[in-house]
Amino acid sequence: MLTVAASGLTLAALATVYKSWRSQASAYLYAGIVVWLVSAICWSYAQGWEFGVLYALCLPAILVWPLIALNQTHLPMPKNIPQPRAFDFSRKSVVSHLANYFVVLVLLLVVSVLLTLGICTVLPFSIAGQLATGTVLLPVLWGLIVYHYLVTTHKLKVLGVYVLLAALCVPLLLLMPL
After folding, report:
1. Which residue in 8, 65, 58 sits closest to 35, CA to CA?
2. CA–CA separation, 123 and 130 (whole Å)
3. CB 9 within 8 A of CB 56
């Protein structure tokens, strides 16, 4: 019985939030959120918190699609359609792209691995904690370094700083006792 009540509350919450969107009234939105929270509590009591949270989150996300399809609009074609750029296979462009490819996928990966290992060796964790930290830190650090390299206009200067940081980590890794 509680599952039926939770289902009804989920539908009521969805309808209330939809009404708030259609009328642009924040009172309906807040009421819909409160009804949704009550339905989440009912789902948790009816199905256990593991499945109740799943139902409370996923059911409205699935049930909203018919409302989205109902409100779909088709815009007219734009008057000036931008033309795609032509392929540029000039020597300068190809060499520039290959150099960025090598730097990002090889050099900056090595730099980020050395920095991650250098950072993890000085952490006061056990080997397992250092490995877990390194597993999480490596892709984040590599992504940040690559992003910084690609957005900067002074690529050689930034690359030099990163290589210097990696070179400073090498003695730390070689001299650090296990």
Report:
1. 8
2. 7
3. no
Q: Measured between alpha carbons, how far is 118 from 110 in angstroms, rounded to an integer?
A: 12
Q: How far apart are CA 121 and CA 136, in angstroms?
A: 14
Helices (H), the chain: 2-23, 26-47, 49-70, 91-102, 108-121, 127-151, 155-175
Q: How many CB atoms lie within 10 A of CB 67?
A: 15
pLDDT at 53: 87
Residues 10-22: b if buried by 16+ CB within 10 A, e if exposed: bebbbebbbebee
pTM for this prediction: 0.54
Note every long-range contact of 52-56, with CB atoms under 8 Å and residues 24 or more positions apart, other chains counting.
52/6, 55/6, 55/10, 56/6, 56/10
Q: 92: exposed, middle or buried (C-beta count within 10 Å: 0-12, 13-18, 19+)?
A: exposed
pLDDT above 90 for 142: yes
Residue 178: what pLDDT? 60
